[in-house]
Amino acid sequence: MTIRYDWQTTEILTIYNTPLLELIYQAASVHRQYHHPQRIQVCKLISIKTGGCPEDCGYCAQSSHYKTEVKPEALLEKETVLNIAKIAKETGVSRVCMGAAWREVRDNRQFEQVLDMVQGVTSMGLEVCCTLGMLTAEQAQRLENAGLYAYNHNLDTSREHYSTIITTRTYDDRLNTIANVRQTKVTVCSGGILGLGETVTDRVQMLHTLSNLQPHPESVPINILSQVEGTPLENQPDVPIWDIVRMIATARIIMPQSDVRLSAGRARLSYVEQGLCFMAGANSIFSSDDQKMLTVTTPCPDYDEDREMLNLLGLEMRPPFQKE
Ligand code: SAM
Ligand code: DTB
Ligand code: SF4
Fold first, then answer.
1. Which of 43, 53, 130, 277 is catalytic?
2. pLDDT tens digits, residue range 201-221?
3. Active site residue 60
4. Which atom of ligand 1 is nearest to the CA of 131?
5. Where are the alpha helices (DSSP H) in the chain?
6. Could you say which of 3.90.550.10, 3.20.20.70, 3.40.120.10, 3.30.1060.10 is the CATH number of the domain covering 9-317?
């Protein structure tokens, strides 16, 4: 099967609605053609700058527009970041993702500090990813020069649904930043969230936008909304496991070479449910030593628990820079 960049929304919808076990079988078959079926990428998130974000993303604990448990903190020291990365590396983690609650990167001293952290963690032999909000092509170039391996910038949902979730930036702002990263050798990580009150059509449209990017994002995170008290989306119902599996399988089939990451929301899934997600083509997760994703509002399974799960499922952790 060759990689396609011309998927139509009707085709994607047909895949999404395929009888479940047939869909999983098809996704698993594609997965095996493009990836080592026993290998899972394990990533560690570090919130290098927490809270106080000027954006109004309706799901986010870090937006200053909502009153949540999260309090704004200063940028972490490089030493702190290197220590967290060291423990992650010793555990077998291959990628460290540094997140900042910024609207966009500014050309200031804080950016210099982030570039220094990127350099430091990269020189430990780890893949480094950053998610810092909007970026110019020049800033992307500076991150590349510091050794950055990936940049995360999610589309979150469809263009149509986007404006009901976020009003402080547009879908095109998002696509522009992704295009700016594409001007460098830094790989692109872009996906979305399930559970924002979107329809199946919105999900399919988001997958359509992602799968029509050429090349496809090297990694596609599928987040499941973690309902945060104080945000406009605090009362959204849980996303059914079947929708999660369908979304993962569809992403796997239409973007066969990309890593599909079962991201936020994994903590509430049983090993059996996660096993189904891996069968459907998910091959990447976030794991942690502090039980959280970026903030305390979104739990994350820890290294020990994940080691147990991977052992039970006969899976192993993928070393850094070894994507086939
Ligand atoms: N500020 C940067 C930005 O938005 O691009 C980076 C950090 S932001 C926390 C990264 C992604 O995390 C969001 O795009 C969203 O997909 C996901 N996310 C944030 N809060 C979430 C929540 N409560 N549940 C699930 N996913 C969430
Ligand atoms: C992504 O798609 N998921 C990660 C990462 N990129 C930055 C974040 C997950 C949600 C974090 C929400 C929280 O911890 O508050
Ligand atoms: Fe800010 Fe990112 Fe949260 Fe949006 S998702 S409020 S941009 S930290």
1. 53
2. 999 999 999 999 999 999 999
3. yes
4. 6
5. 9-16, 20-34, 78-91, 109-122, 137-145, 159-165, 171-182, 200-211, 241-254, 271-279, 303-313
6. 3.20.20.70
